[in-house]
Amino acid sequence: MSQSRREDRDSSRRAQENQQRLVADLRSQYDVIICGAGSSGSVVARRLAENPDLRVLLIEAGGSDDAETVLDPAQWPANLGSKRDWGFQAQPNPHLNGRALSMSMGKGLGGGSSINVMVWARGHRSDWDYFAAEAGDAEWSYDNVLQIYRRIENWQGSPDPRYRGESGPVWVQPASDPSPIAHAMLDAAREVGIPTFAHPNGQMMEGPGGASISDMLVRDGRRQSLYRAYVHPWLDRPNLTVLTDTTVRRVLIEQQRAVGVEVVHAGQVLEIRAWAEVVLSLGAIQTPKVLMHSGIGDHAELTRFGIPVVQHLPGVGQNFQDHVSFGCVWEYAEPIAPRNSGSEATLYWTSRPGLDAPDVLFCQVEFPVPSDRTAARGVPAQGWTMFAGLARPASRGRLRLTSADPEVPLAIEANMMSDPADLTTAVACVDLCRALGNAQAFRPHVRGEAMPGDIRGDALEDFIRDAAVTYWHQSCTAKMGRDAMSVVDASLNVYGIDALRIADASIMPRVTAGNTQAPCAIIGERAAQMIAQAHGL
Question: Is the pTM of this model over 0.90?
């Protein structure tokens, strides 16, 4: 055994033994309690635990990430529907021909960053500038956020010091040795007049978009989740306790101040107190659920189930957004095995002239991805998918309580495609898909288009409603802002409640253009910085 492998093994053993001791001696009070070890919560926990005088508790409903289905990039689909997936289900949607979509979300250390496709997409300049305008705080602007991205990245591609950093905790690399089908995607983009870029997280996201080989959180052929990047190296520290298989039921609030959490651990209901703050990083479904069960939400919604109202915030659970996608499929002329995660090329573009930012996004997937409904149309055994969707959906959904019991799931009224504008954009999106997939660049690789084919009018709209699936980018249900429907302010403090902050995708005023993992890292970084400043830590 090499010296480095021996050191890694010894370090892992020390970390495991340390966490076993800390959990066995679980305290009744910590300085900061972070609920949720996903993409944002992992960042908050690590940054605060860098202060050795701060006692940090990180609570996670799921378990360990030490599994091949997590660590092997190619096996990510095996996590969907498994114990590492919350398994949420949206309500039947009349705008999707009555279909009820599954809403997978990560449950376990790393959250979504442990079960997703590992794409690192920062969001568009206009997204962050919109956040800053809504919050009334320039610290959320693109120029400021760009500096945070540069600080946290360990970029492994061609040097680009204006946009990329090389010394941070987040290992980011272009997809390694991409498939010929990924290169064909870039060639096809150029054929139809879409520019290509060396990487997708710089100039490409400051204008109308473009195409590129994807940036991925993969290191030495293994998933590098945000939990692995931030928390895993810190598990041997005496001031960071990671409590898994523990569900947060509600926030404990006394005199309009969060003083701790009520959790279920090892079959028992426990109360754990927080000296400084409680941070909710449970994701855009569980965070508003915990808020509502804590008495924070719309007065009418809470009293419907006899939950005492602590703070009337009608925006809790409202403004639900997600990227909706439509799988267009082509059959390979000869089978081409997927490489890396099976998704190595990405494209952002505009659906119509006059837009200054992309409103459609494409992730090429190197195997067929039909919906439950379009599978019946016939899917080739060997093929690839243009997994293309709406980067700026106009539709809005909501989450509703179904019981006063915290163990009972919410009703998810996703309302995808409910706004007519989304159908117009979806038609343009599918048309662009077909132009790309049928371009000359793909001719050597494909036998032909499997779906949707050359259809128009009602037939195309029907295909869109049948094909629609989620990108699993649930967000915006406890939005940051200054209007009556806002839940948190620019510092991510919950309005009307002291010592309670939210740090996850639920605070987005609108969903960012692209995958949401990287923006969640920024939300975590900003939250940790603001907590430290608020308490002089």
Answer: yes
